[in-house]
Design a protein that fits this description.
Order of helices and strands: HEHEHEEEHHHEHHHHHHHEEHHHHH
Shape: elongated
Distance between the termini: 54 Å
Helix content: 40-55%
Largest sheet: 4 strands, mixed
Radius of gyration: 24 Å
């Protein structure tokens, strides 16, 4: 078995050493961009040897202008199928046909061959065509508030992570445009993140008061996720989907302080230990908010919840302060009316997040 090479490095080398020389010889004046973005753990840098069992191997994405794609894509794909080596860096460049059924959803696995054309994974695309298929928006289209809020962070991350290896078509400029939310959208999302915490922070200890330990632990688990989501927003980093959510969180500046508290919430054996861990997390969040300097300084101490014998972050203080700083009147009004946040904040349903054909309907929630 070949020594494992991270997929992003493999893709870069595959393009530079195997793909680019073929294109440069056959189409010396063809403008194009080459990259590895989109789906795949290797795009985020989290792939391991385990990742090589499906949809992984020497691959790269080529983006052409629409006219060049119409005129050259079939011939270019055919050329590469006959000119690419059968193996690159110890990995087969030939992929089997997409598997269907039994949950495979089009899985392709590298297969070794020693004759005939290579069924390669050099995807030949246009930028707008790829964007329409991925997020339902073209590169030149201005993004409304509803557009930003209906786009899952994982999709935005997949478009801005990975690497660009050649860029004649300004793919990097598009990625820079999507790199982070506009300021008012960011304020709105932060306010909604605090609102989510405020909805739950008093419920876990109340459930425990009536002996519902399972319910209290479940609510506390929701709070852990909400706290982590808010930390990604505070750090101005898109959060990946569930598989890599914890791995990416561990890379945030606040992780070393917060992970012990959040793990403490998850493993707590009683309500007292759980609340101590949650309060430690709240105090960290409160300090992080003030460090951002987005609102007036808010006293980060915890506050008692009525006379029930436990403390909360009093999340409403932060949410209200952030909403006051939103400059866009319509967005501020939406936050005051119903701070549902982005699709990531009101749903964790994978099918909903991935449904490009529903994105316009989701966007309409904010009009």
């Amino acid at each position: 078995m070949s020594e494992f090479i991270p997929g992003l490095s493999l893709s870069r080398d595959f393009f530079q050493d195997a793909v680019a020389p073929i294109i440069d010889q056959a189409y010396p004046s063809l403008p194009y961009s080459a990259a590895l973005i989109g789906s795949g753990s290797e795009v985020l840098g989290y792939d391991t040897e385990v990742s090589t069992d499906h949809h992984w191997g020497p691959r790269v994405m080529l983006f052409l202008r629409p006219a060049d794609h119409a005129g050259h894509a079939p011939a270019l794909r055919e050329l590469l199928s006959h000119r690419l080596p059968y193996e690159f860096a110890g990995y087969s460049t030939h992929f089997g046909l997409p598997k269907v059924g039994d949950g495979d959803n089009g899985t392709q696995i590298p297969e070794r061959i020693d004759s005939g054309p290579v069924n390669h994974r050099v995807e030949i695309l246009t930028i707008d065509g790829y964007l329409r298929a991925t997020i339902g928006i073209t590169g030149e289209q201005p993004l409304s508030a509803g557009d930003w809020l209906s786009l899952p962070q994982q999709k935005l991350l997949s478009l801005t992570a990975g690497g660009v290896f050649r860029d004649d078509l300004e793919l990097a400029a598009l990625r820079a445009r999507l790199a982070w939310y506009p300021h008012d959208i960011w304020l709105y999302l932060l306010a909604c993140g605090w609102s989510r915490i405020g909805q739950d922070e008093h419920l876990a200890p109340r459930a425990a008061m009536v002996g519902d330990e399972l319910g209290a632990a479940l609510i506390a688990g929701r709070l852990v996720r909400s706290i982590m989501q808010l930390c990604f927003l505070m750090a101005r980093r898109y959060a990946p989907y569930a598989k890599w959510f914890g791995s990416a969180f561990a890379e945030l500046p606040c992780a070393s302080e917060l992970i012990p508290a959040l793990r403490g919430v998850q493993v707590a054996q009683d309500d007292e230990d759980r609340q101590d861990a949650l309060c430690a997390a709240y105090e960290s969040l409160n300090r992080q908010h003030n460090a951002l300097g987005l609102t007036e300084t808010i006293q980060p101490r915890l506050l008692p919840f009525h006379d029930r014998g436990f403390q909360v972050s009093a999340a409403w203080r932060y949410s209200e302060a952030l909403i006051r700083r939103i400059g866009d009147d319509k967005l501020r009004a939406a936050a005051l009316r119903a701070p549902i946040g982005s699709i990531d904040q009101f749903s964790d349903n994978t099918d909903l997040r991935e449904a490009v054909h529903l994105r316009r309907r989701i966007s309409a929630l904010y009009h």
